[in-house]
Amino acid sequence: MKKNIGFTVLLVIVFCAGVAFILLRNRHAIETAPEPVQSVTKGVPNETAPSKENVVPVYQEKVNQLKVSVEKNPSNAAHIASLARLLMDGHQTSDAIRYFEQAIILQPKNDSLLFDLSVCYYNEKKYDKAMETTEKILRFKKDNPKALYNKAMLLATKGNTGEAEKVLKHLIDIAPNSDEAVQAKTHFLPAGK
Predict the structure, then answer these.
(1) For the chain, what is the domain count?
(2) Measured between alpha carbons, how far apart are the two ends of the chain, in Å?
(3) Domain with 80 in it: what CATH number?
């Protein structure tokens, strides 16, 4: 019976890891962020019904504008991050990774950039790189609930459920009322643990 509970927990953790990891990524703005990106369908007929015909050209135009901006000023972390996030949102993950890495060189302790880079690595199934990036966050914010939660989900994804459980227990101990701790208690740890 105990083996079945462990197996069930493992399945739930692995399934939810991907969903939770993406949903919990931190998307705070950078201090010097450029003006927000306008709706990709702004100014096109029937704005409430995005389609391939009206979204793709406007999206690509915005990507190109940001690329030009980054080429003109390669030290503007805000524009680099905006481009990376736009590429990430457009499912151009490998390109997004390159720009996140460039922005992180300029702002190595920006946890928002690090979280997003980690999500990109996760989406590309580069779990070791995602873990390495998550560990960077934990080096300067050792008790960051989102980073601890993501670390646990990465451990579970790689099959290390025992270590994942330890990280979740630590998370609950240090931040019992955080969204991540509540989710860990509700979905991942058996009652009484």
Answers:
(1) 1
(2) 16
(3) 1.25.40.10
